[in-house]
Amino acid sequence: MSELLPIASARRTAAALWTEVRALPVLGVLTAVTAVAASAAGLVAPWVLGDLVDHISVGADRGDVLTYAAIIGGAALLAGVLTGLSAVLISRLGETVLARLRERVLDRTLHLPAPTLDKVSSGDLLSRVGDDVSVVTTAIGQTGPTLAAALLTVVLTGGGMFALDWRLGLAGLAAAPFYVLAVRWYLPRSGPFYAKERVAIGDRAQAMVSALQAAPTVRAYRLEAEHTAAINDRSRTAMDLSIGVFRLFTRLVARMNRAEFVGLGAILAAGFLLVRGDLVTVGAVTAAALYFHRLFNPVGALIMEFDEVQAAGASLARLVGVADLEPPKRPEQVREPADGTLVLTGIAHRYEDPLVLDDVSATVPAGTRLAVVGASGAGKTTLAGIAAGLLEQERGTVVLGGVPVGELDRARHVAMLSQEVHVFSGPLIEDLRLAKPDATEEEVWAALAVVGADGWARALESGVDTVVGESAHALTAAQAQQVALARLVLADPTVAVLDEATAEAGSAGARDLERAALAATEGRTTVIVAHRLTQAVLADRILVLDQGKVVESGTHDELVAAGGRYAQLWRSWHVADLGVGR
């Protein structure tokens, strides 16, 4: 059963967010100052209107009214400009923080160990880097500025009410318990819905990915109805959760209206008593009532945006959960190997009990080839991953030229190719330059020639400038393997590890692909997980694994003559190979 990646706690999510904000001090301070100024400018109009009421009651003339109107208009214009600038800065700050978080998520995802990737639900992973990023991006661009402005407006407006008269401020606070009760009722009920909804969306994505990946099999066995039903079931689960939250939300709105009625009623009643006792002016009560009325939208926004905030919070927690995964270990000091000799000593590894590899040792002299053979499940791929430095062994050492692999610049010295290669969308030459960004066109053609791919590459409509990949010129599986081998030539690593990289050699182009692999690894230390035993024949030495242990080691001729496990594999493969159209 697939596992889910970790989800960060609310405290850890907030801490991660704050850490990213603190990393941008200038932008953070400028954003905060602008947002406060925008909210403060909005306090001017109610205060001036209240003062105008008092002046009119004592006989203010037309000139006074026009002066007050000009002040109110200027304050409104200033508030509008500052509010717009604040929204831009908040979005910029939020997008920058999210971009950094996305980079960390992508970095951790790309460096997930192979065993973890095998266990993790692909739907969960796709929903995090897709749906969750989209939800947080929307929240930052739309909800973030609204929420920040609303929060500051509530705080500053509340302070303005107390500045008018502390008793009017206390009257306005009568609404606070009702708001608090509304939120306390809503949050515990809605929060779990959002967390479950994000998981349900991941489950739905997993069902869709599984159906699409297995489309030929699904059609062959007429399982379309079953897979469609599974997707419908997961979609219905996500929909029911969304509807459940909306029902809670409509009941929250009724509770908010009750709080607004209580607060405004309390201010008017207190104002009436205070004016009658000649303790405050009518203008002060007017300003206080306008201030409280001004709170309707921002308080409503704070509460109503909790829908988006909680959805974004749930998505952000899932992103932080991935970002907090153990980062890939990088050597404190990169060392250069003395030569290309690869030595594996006492290698042991397990995913779960029992050991997948147990006390495996081998030496590959510089510039020679070691073929690793064995039945399925013998531990060949695990050994290849450890030799390439992609898996960390439980015990033992891997040393290249006297330097532990973990202390090397692995991108420069070690390259690994598997049978699952990817051709990126874009010009073929740029796909090849992934291995060497500064490669000239002549170097690219030379690499293609080494692996025997220059013929079909020149036949393309625009040569190496032809756009390949999805929605463009599709390469065959064998051609894609040749592209991967050409990248290997351009990268020119000290060690090449080929994990069944010529498995496609079971097709009509078998010999061509084997020759391409042989040419690409000429002169470099090579470890080959042999899919076809003809690859083992061409190796300088063969390591035979059985249930994670080395059972034989030697050249092809020595092992065949010994009549052991390898000789059995060779006879079985040779008979089968002769029977396949030869």
TrEMBL record:
Chief place of localization: membrane
Keywords of the record: ATP-binding, Membrane, Nucleotide-binding, Transmembrane, Transmembrane helix
GO molecular function: ATP binding
InterPro entries, per the entry: AAA+_ATPase, ABC1_TM_dom, ABC1_TM_sf, ABC_transporter-like_ATP-bd, P-loop_NTPase, Type_1_exporter
Protein name per its UniProtKB record: ABC transporter ATP-binding protein
Topology of the protein relative to the lipid bilayer: Multi-pass membrane protein
ABC transmembrane type-1 domain sequence ranges: 29-311
Transmembrane segments: 21-45, 65-90, 170-187, 261-292
Top-level taxon of the source organism: Bacteria
Residue ranges constituting the ABC transporter domain according to the UniProt record: 342-572
Cellular compartment(s): Cell membrane
Gene3D superfamilies the record matches: ABC transporter type 1, transmembrane domain, P-loop containing nucleotide triphosphate hydrolases
